[in-house]
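Readers of this paper often ask what the protein records in our data store actually look like. Such a record has a labelled line for the sequence and another for the backbone structure tokens. Nothing more is needed to write down the fold, since each code stands for a local backbone conformation. The record that follows is passed on verbatim for readers who wish to inspect the format.
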Amino acid sequence: MISFDNPGVGTFTTPRQVMMGDGASAKLADLLKGWQVQPARVLLVADREVTRLGLIDAIRGSLAVGGFEAAVFDAIVGEPLLETALDLTDFARGQAFGAVVGVGGGSAMDMAKLAAALATNAGGVKDYLGIATFPKAPLPLALVPTTAGTGAEATSVSMFSIEGRKSIVLSSQLIPLAAVLDPSLTLSLPPRVTAATGLDALSHACEAYMSIRANPFTDGHALTAAGIIARWLKTAYDDGANLEARRAMIFAAYLGGLCLNAGVVVGHSVAYTIANRTRTPHGISCTMALPYTILFNCTVKPERLKALAEVVLKSPGAAAEDLALWIDDLNADLGMPRSLKEVGIAAESLDEMVEECLTRYPRPTNPVGLSRERLKPLYEAMHAGDVRGFAQRASRG
């Protein structure tokens, strides 16, 4: 169901060009030239795993054939820290670059956004935390995902950790000039990463659909992305060489990124409180929270969650509880943790997590107001991994 009942004024931003297809990354030089980027030195930002797999060499080579010399920064390991952002800023300012290309998962692409902006602007990384405006236009930026999940190639956010806490730079100026979706780059993803990133994309679609800032643009992308992921994620997980599944997932992940124009809801706030205490990857912490998020919000406009459940489950008459239980089962099928206990969080930490969720990540986009009284039962159910029990509680209001 695409809803037209929101009278609010919003914006919907996208990359100016999207290129998709097997081997699309080999056409990066042509893409840049098409936007009048003259052959020059290019900053290539990648994560260490991309370099280890040799993916960066092929992209560097294709750029060289087009006359672009690439300098590589690949010191990104896992989710980036402020120190990584500072080192990259120095690297970006240390040479004259004509463009920035980010290759990798969400961390590499987020850092590439920051590099493109800070290469042309004075000030430190911390000067731009939160909603930012850069006085000078960033360098032309192209992003090439090698995972199918974060959707960072479509978003205006750069995220990293400062002293163990999630922090962001948010600006429409960070949206790339181009996104290059090359499913062949995802063939080397191991099953667990395939699952974690695909579930991240599912979380983006479902949470954006619940947001009070949802609009017809995001609704359409959210329903499409969620349906594709439900159809193809398990196939990609079971058979990583299946290119049709890889094409489907990289497309759905991009749509999930577009959905983030509506923002996300309480599930991401809960996920941040998990990540601040454990080394649980972002996509896994989000999908752990997703069934509870759906049930937390099911009393508000239940017809919307019913429509989402029917699309995902391909079952007329499916309800929010059915969707929540299906996601919990999917987590189990993909070998994901399903409780806070499984990731090492003690029950004694729950009050602190509730407080952090409220004060640090309040999430005004959530359709149900957040309070200690509402959040504590959610965290308690998550700690036990009791989706069904939380569903019964939610049905009582």
About this structure: Strands lie at 17-20, 41-47, 69-76, 99-104, 130-131, 141-145, 157-162, 165-170, 178-181. The CA atoms of residues 7 and 52 lie 49 Å apart. The two ends are 24 Å apart (CA to CA). The longest strand covers residues 69-76.
